[in-house]
Amino acid sequence: MSVKNQARQVLFAVMDTGPGIPIAAQTLIFEPFVQTETGLKQAEGTGLGLPISRSLVQAHGGALWVESTPGAGSTFYFTLPTGSPDNESRGN
Hints:
Helix content: 10-25%
Strand order of the largest sheet: 1-2-4-3
Structural class: alpha+beta
Oligomer: single chain
Distance between the termini: 31 Å
Largest sheet: 4 strands, antiparallel
Number of helices: 3
């Protein structure tokens, strides 16, 4: 895991060395109840973790995405703003 302070936001990165996620599935995994073939084979989870995580991050003004190469693992990134939207609009 890594954390970097960027202009007006903090970038978090969580890396794994798993099987990776095919490009075609990288957008689908953020849909409720959708799992990759590997996830289905392992019979773990319901496919709600990533959609809930994305909703929580977006509710706080951030973004969540994945970069992955099949066979080489995945990195999940998310950003969170460093200030509240109310303070930024008032110039604080």
